Amino acid sequence: MGRKWNNIKEKKASKDANNSRVYSKFGLEIYVTAKRGEPDPESNQALKFVIERAKTYNVPKAIIDRAIEKAKGGTEESYDELRYEGFGPNGSMVIVDALTNNVNRTAAEVRAAFNKNGGNLGVNGSVAYMFDATAVIGVEGKTEEEVLELLLEADVEVRDILQEDEAVIIYAEPDQFHAVQEAFKSVGITEFTVAEQTMLPQNELSLTEDAKIKFEKIIDTLEDLDDVQRVYHNVDLGE
User: Fold this and answer.
1) Which InterPro entries is this protein grouped with (predicted)?
2) Angle at 130 between CA 124 and CA 132, to 5 degrees
3) I need a surface site. Which of 69, 132, 167, 183 has the fewest CB within 10 A?
4) Tell me, what's the pLDDT at 17?
5) What is the set of domains in the chain, with CATH numbers?
């Protein structure tokens, strides 16, 4: 797969260690997801997924509970889910998912993040076709063989199973995300090192050191925007 998910998360955690931005973004996503459905994760699978993902990033329970309680209230805040696709140096590709209550503001900020760092926005569909929607789930305390046997017994289909450092990472179709988790929960595993619905590039691109520095500026600028929830790309950053 070309990516070490534990290393990626460690790098992100280190970047976010000195601020609460990651918590705020999860709080907003939980609020919006709860508002659009039932504010109960047991009856709202989308909400359940967001909460489980938040837990892998150590989002405090108080923030999760506060977002759900806010959704139960009578607030009429409206948020739009947006996806932007763009290019960095040397044909590098980026997908940006945003959640915003001001579309014009978000569009301007995302465009500026690209333009000021040597990239440019593309049209819808110009990048996404080179990525595959993928469920990524990680567990500790099991070998690849044990995980494979468990998933076979549960009749769960996966794309790949890889040992990455101390964890076993499972790559599957998005519609198998909950089935994979339920298979582990059936044997008492309820904590996951990774629980992501992501976009994986079909091919990764290597950049020169100068181009890589420019590209990382694009990614860092995008991830620092309050309205941006997730950023996907096809560059091998040596993580």
Assistant:
1) Integrase-like_N, TACO1_YebC-like_2nd/3rd_dom, TACO1_YebC_N, Transcrip_reg_TACO1-like, Transcrip_reg_TACO1-like_dom3, Transcrip_reg_TACO1_YeeN, YebC-like
2) 100
3) 69
4) 52
5) 5-72 (1.10.10.200), 80-129+203-233 (3.30.70.980), 131-201 (3.30.70.980)
